[in-house]
Amino acid sequence: MSEEGPTLPEYLGGITKFLDAYVATSPTGKIELFEGMQKCAYNGNWKYQLENGVDPYHVGSLHASAVTPEAMHIYRQGNRLRDGHRRSWRHRSYRLGANAGGCEPSGGFNLVIFPNLVVLRSQIRTVRPIAVNRTEIYTNVVKLQNVPDEVNIRRMRDQEFEFGAAGTFFTDDIEIFERTQEGLQSGAVEWLVFSRGLDREVMKNGYMTGNMSDETQHRGMYQNWKRLMTNYTRLPCPRRRSETMQVERPEIEDFLYREARLLDTRKFEEWAGLFTDDAIYWVPAGRDDIDPTRHVSVIHDDKAAMAKRIKRLRSGFAYAQDPQSRVHRLISNVELGATDDEKQTIEVTCVMLLIELARHRQTFHSARCEFTLDRSSGSWRVRRKKVNLLRNGEVLENTPYLI
Ligand SMILES: [Fe+2]
After folding, report:
1. What gap in Å lies between CA 141 and CA 83, rounded to an integer?
2. What does 48-76 look like in DSSP terms, one character per residue?
3. How close is the Cα of 162 to the center of ligand 1, in Å?
4. Within its chain, how far is the Cα of 269 from the centroid?
5. Gap from CA of 107 to ligand 1 centroid (Å)
6. How many A from CA of 72 to the centre of ligand 1?
7. CA of 19 to the centre of ligand 1 (A)
8. Which of 56, 72, 272, 396 has its Cα between 20 and 30 A from that of 358?
């Protein structure tokens, strides 16, 4: 944990008492998680899930297919905590018989721990912003200690039924998140106004409190968001560039894409022209970290060997490439590593997925590629390319093309 910033109790503030109450639903005062998690995603902003996490207002209209009329009475009161976390009361009781251990099996309220944790009955959701219009939700199911198995299993089945990727509630929520995202792209609405209940919310026992259908909790969340976005302390982050050797990620990515495209389109001579005269093109065999001077490789070419390999492919007699393979190389996970200011080089790694179609058969190779790129001549060139095939310890199929 960082030395700077608030402590965890300071950060949690008023939500602590509700977290304690949540955990106290377990007879031992401790909770566990079931194995595994559900992973869902939607094409929308991460904040929709937070708004949704304690918003009873939408339930009546959106979830009419999932909520029984007699259950609607539970959506009557909502509270917002002063520190921007939010809580929504939600009385839910199951009648599981005397064996329920006196606990409320699925908890009694929802919590949002700003910015990305949602505690919703028997679930804990982690909100993962992927892009401005893409969010992933990882959901764990909470297990109580010292209660009959039927109670915990009931909690899990309920959460699967209502909130999993095929859940009776959650599927509609996600649909609305995506429609909201699309709607807001129109530009027709400049501001979204969260003023419902503003005139009637009051401080009560240290918590800003409103009616359940009010947007008290949304105002709390956005006040906290604004505070963080306008008054934050910049955190140290890994340097992606050298102090003296300025390297931008897009130029490296463009170079790697070009290298892959030249191979895909069989412009082998142009591809070889990207390499320095002392370059090495290496595909280890057996494992990634072999010493190529002591251990056999699949390919370990210098520039002259590369030229010979290309000449063979052009000869008209390379039968393993007649007909020619059609190949796509997908480059991803590009990471910039160490730079050498004197040599003007940078270490780069990426992941490549190679898809080959030959004689009606499609095959795949995945590899983590390591490059030493050299800019000493003024433009980027390859000084070393190492292709660590995922399957390099397995029996390899015929790979008559340049990898
Ligand atoms: Fe919902």
Report:
1. 26
2. HHHHHHT--TTHHHHTTTTS-GGGGGG--
3. 10
4. 39
5. 17
6. 13
7. 21
8. 272
Cβ atoms of 235 and 2 within 8 Å: the answer is yes
- 382 with 371: CB under 8 angstroms? yes
Q: Does residue 166 belong to any structural domain of this protein?
A: yes
Q: Which residue has the tokens 């905590």?
A: 81
Cα–Cα dist 226/171, whole Å: 29
Q: Measure Cα distances from 84 to 4, 22, 217, 219 in Å.
A: 20, 18, 8, 8
Residues 254-285: pLDDT tens digits? Answer: 999 999 999 999 999 999 999 999 999 999 88
- Measure 21 CA to ligand 1 centroid, in angstroms: 23
Please check whether residues 220 and 277 belong to one and the same domain.
no
Domain of 343, CATH number, reads 3.10.450.50
Task: Say if residue 26 is in the same domain as residue 135.
Answer: yes
Q: State how far the alpha carbon of 37 is from the alpha carbons of 107, 201, 361, in Å.
A: 19, 37, 36
Which residues, given as ranges, of the chain have pLDDT below 50?
76-82, 89-107, 234-242
Centre of ligand 1 to C-alpha 290, Å, is: 54
Compute the distance from residue 169 Cα to the ligand 1 centre, in Å.
6
Task: Report CA(323)–ligand 1 centroid distance (Å).
Answer: 55
The answer for 378, left when phi > 0, alpha when psi is -120 to 50, beta otherwise, is left
Distance from C-alpha of 110 to C-alpha of 79, rounded to nearest angstrom? 10
pLDDT number for residue 103: 39
**Ligand 1 centroid from CA 124, angstroms:** 15
Give residue 113's pLDDT: 92
Are residue 173 and residue 299 in the same domain, yes or no? no
Distance 168 CA to ligand 1 centre (A): 10
Going from the C-alpha of 177 to that of each of 164, 184, 185, the distances in angstroms are 16, 11, 13
**d(Cα 252, Cα 333) in Å, to the nearest integer?**
12
Q: Report the separation in Å between the CA atom of 118 and the middle of ligand 1, taken as the mean of its atom positions.
A: 13
Same domain for 38 and 186, yes or no, is yes
Q: How many angstroms separate the alpha carbon of residue 163 from the centre of ligand 1?
A: 9
Q: Say whether both 290 and 179 belong to one domain.
A: no
Return the closest-CA partner of residue 194 out of 33, 356, 47, 346. Answer: 47
Q: What is the CATH number of the domain that holds 23?
A: 3.90.380.10
Q: 311-323 pLDDT, tens per residue?
A: 888 988 888 888 8
